[in-house]
Amino acid sequence: MEKVNVVIVGAGAGGGVVAKELAQAGLTVVLLERGEWPHYDDNNDDELYSQRTPVLGNPYGPDDLRHRRVVVNGDGSTRVVVPSDGAYNNNAGCVGGGTVSYGAMAWRFMPQDFRLRSIYGDVPDSTLADWPISYDDLEVFYEKAEYEIGVSGDYTDNPFCGPRKKPFPMPAFPMNKEGNLVVETTKRMGLHPFPVPMLRNSVPHNGRPACIHMRYCVGFACPVNAKSGTHNTVLPIALATGNCQVRTGCVASEIIVDDHGRARSVRYFDADGKAQEQTADLVVISASATETARLLLNSKSKLFPNGAGNNNDWVGRNLQGHLYVGASGLMEQEIYDDSGPGTTVAISDYNHGNPGLVGGGMLATEFTSMPNNFCGIRPPGEARWGKAHKDFQRRYYKRLVRLIGPIQEIPNFHARVTIDPVVKDAWGIPVCRLSGTRHSYDIRLGDFLADKAEAIIKEMGATRVWRNGPGMWLSGGQHQAGTCRMGNDPKTSVTNRIGQVHDIDNLFIADGSLHVTNGGFNPVLTIMAMAYRVADAINTGWKGSKFK
Amino acid sequence: MRPNHSESSAEVKPDGLTRRSLLKLSAASILGASFGMGASIGITRWNRTAPPAYLFFSGAEAKTLIAMCEQIIPADDTPGATDAGVIHYIDRQLIGIFTRHQVTYRKGLEALHKTCLRVYQTAFENLDFKRQTATLCLLETNQAPKECWGDQSQSEFFNLVIDHTRQGFYGSPRYGGNKNYVSYRMLGLAYPNLIGQNRYSASRPG
Predict the structure, then answer these.
(1) Which of 145-174 (A) contact B at CB < 8 A?
(2) b or e along A128-143 (b: 16 or more beta carbons within 10 Å of the residue's beta carbon)?
(3) How far is CA A247 from each of CA A3, A63, A229, A278, B17, rounded to the nearest angstrom?
(4) How far apart are alpha carbons A250 and A266 in whole angstroms?
(5) Average pLDDT in the A303-320 region?
């Protein structure tokens, strides 16, 4: 197979951006993606077959037939799980990755999120550290992501965000009924509500139409192409350069690192299951925090006998996602207005500066809850079946209010991805083994934020209010991050400050794996901005055959 | 119809239909049935045997499970699980993506049957509504006679049926349940969902 300049593994939020930037700069790029191109008409109005509630499987992959993971239970026993099982901690497998079916909240992390250790000090039994870069280093790339991929928002009423040079490229989405009530209530409480920024067109933008507010949104591809992902923005540009080839149905199995410590190629199985090898000058891995770690760990070589970049045993460590907490309430009057995607307002008052606490998280109203999903939304002690269940559904489906949010988790060394010694996937590749739990500090922070949400819901006038409190399970899921953290010291990180793996000059990472901490916000815009930054470093530093 | 005729022999039927077009029509009728559009005209006269009512369950198992599902979502002034066809949702998934739950259903339904014979000397579906409810409350808290259940967990079985009943009742009709969109009507949700179709204008609802 002909050598190219760059082979990228994974066409999601990170890989799509890198492919576009490098192809535009004139490098030849092969992008390997395990899934397929999504289609608008994949949206089938079907709650049971959605990426968010995959009762009958994940419509945007990966499938339950060919994929497996092993989960280590609290008592040390293990179990094998499939992607539609929550414990698998799945992220979508298709061109565009999670950006096809995501909820599309477009958060920048706050400046403090990059400096938690300096601001708050150490947390015992954690690997809490500052990022090796600052918000200011990333600001220009956040802006690029907002403009090129497309974000709607308005931070006029958000006094807590970091400085921005340009306004959002599109106006914010309007509030729905629930959002208006939250705005009114939180303002009365002295808080600062503002519209949720969205990777979604509020007005026609970049040749795609405006959002039509359907309820089947999060968990689905957009049927009118108003949701902004890498599949419908940067990737078409990459392809139009003529320098980029996307190979779908291709499952990477190993990065070949030569005896001089240089990445030579990526081995993969093509759509027909045939073993292939793509040689390249540069290798970029953007397969998600779990799969990137797996690929590195499965890539053993003379100089890296424990996996690429893993001589200090940091690959796969510090797995984190987001602990979501909040509160729910039931109103006397109907508040549901069938205006998807449903979440419209957020507050950032509790992300930082909480007395005695390390960081915090934002709170936002929730995406529209589908009828089956709503069966699980109940105050404690409420009947799960019988006439009482039915009465609750009828009475409250349109009277639910919710505020929930992600707290920035405290990373720990024991929440991790390793390789299972026995179980393999359909291609014979050893699978991820997930072990550990989140840090106990997260529970404290989660309780704090849930209390705040509860107070707001009560103030909104809900008749019944209950907390959605924290639990200790392993974190990961669609917000998975942290497994190949960037840092200045090779002994306590996997890559340097530009995403280059320590001691393997031509191997880069561009996904959530790089995150030292994961912010009290949905991480996708940061993954995109970081990918722009990694690509910028490659374009600046790559001199034909050597780096630097 | 002769058995063992090959695909390639374009066998001509008295009314001029070839075997190929018959196959096409049969496929259409299967699709039609699964989308609730009814069988196409002219198909039934070639069906020598009626299709089985269920793909996985026996008739007896289905009777018990239908009664169970109706307990979980009972009919009152709006339709319940039976009207919605929840049994068909579960039945179909059990030979598909829920294959892993087959044993739980088979053993669970048998154990429930034994339990009712032992306590009431009759099948679950023959009990009056209140006694059915009381029996399921026992399952929910693992208090039915242990010797009827062996290594099958009562509450796990019941929880699985609760989950699947709700999915069948509230999920898309394309899987066999939620017949005539009964749950969407009950919740006051517009269906089919017009918002989101390319042919409609981008106006905000409400």
Answers:
(1) 174
(2) bbbbbbebeebbebbb
(3) 15, 18, 18, 11, 44
(4) 11
(5) 98
Residue A424 has pLDDT above 70, yes or no: yes
Q: Look at residue A390 and tell me if it is in a domain.
A: no
pTM: 0.91
What distance, in Å, lies between the first and last C-alpha atoms of chain A?
Answer: 27
pLDDT at position B15 is: 39
Residues 221-260 of A with CB under 8 A from B: 223-224
Give the span between the Cα atoms of A229 and A235, in whole angstroms: 9
Pair A470, A442: CB distance under 8 Å: yes
Residue A196 inside a domain? The answer is yes
Name the nearest CA neighbour of A286 among A5, A10, A502.
A10
Does B204 contact A213 at a Cβ distance shorter than 8 Å?
yes
- Those of residues 58-97 in A touching chain B at CB distance below 8 A are 64, 84
CB-based contact A326:A481 (threshold 8 Å): no
CATH number for the domain that contains residue A198: 3.50.50.60
Rounded Cα–Cα distance for residues A527 and B97 (Å): 33
Would the pLDDT of A547 be above 90?
A: no
Q: Which residue carries 């808080």 as its tokens?
A: A191
User: Tokens at residue A384, please?
Assistant: 């799960």
- Largest Cα separation within chain B, whole Å, is 64
Question: By CA distance, what is B189's nearest residue in A?
Answer: A338
Q: Domain range holding A463? A: 4-367+399-547
Q: Is A392 part of any domain?
A: no
Predicted confidence (pLDDT) per residue in B144-169, tens digit: 999 999 999 999 999 999 999 999 99
Q: With the C-alpha atoms ordered B138, B142, B145, B147, is the resulting torsion angle positive or negative? A: positive
In angstroms, what separates the C-alpha of B43 from chain A's closest C-alpha? 29
Q: Which residues contact A232 (CB under 8 A, 6 or more apart)?
A: A96, A208, A225
Region A430-453: what's the mean pLDDT? 97
Residues belonging to chain B with any Cβ–Cβ distance to chain A shorter than 8 Å:
71-74, 76, 78, 80, 93, 97, 133, 136, 162, 165-167, 170-172, 174-175, 183-184, 186-190, 192-193, 195-198, 200, 202-206
Number of structural domains found in chain A? 1
The interface predicted TM-score (ipTM) is: 0.92
pLDDT in tens, B16-51: 333 333 333 333 333 333 333 333 333 444 445 666
How does DSSP assign A470-491, residue by residue? ---SPP-GGG-B-TT-B-S-GG
**pLDDT tens by residue, A88-146:** 999 999 999 999 999 999 999 999 999 999 999 999 999 999 999 999 999 999 999 99
Chain A residue closest in CA terms to B96: A56
Whether A373 maps to a domain, the answer reads no
Mean pLDDT of A136-164: 97
For β-strands A29-32 and A4-9, DSSP reports them as parallel
C-alpha B33/C-alpha A347 separation (Å) is: 50
- Higher pLDDT: A286 or B45? It is A286
pLDDT tens digits for range A52-62? 999 999 999 99
Contact B187 A393 (CB under 8 A): yes
Nearest CA in chain A to B173: A46
Given the structure tokens 């405290």, which residue do they identify?
A410
Contacting residues of A for B189, CB less than 8 Å apart:
338, 371
- Partners of residue B206 in chain A, C-beta under 8 Å: 337-339
Determine the pLDDT at residue A338.
Answer: 85
Cβ neighbours of residue B191 closer than 8 Å, sequence gap 6 or more: B181, B184, B185
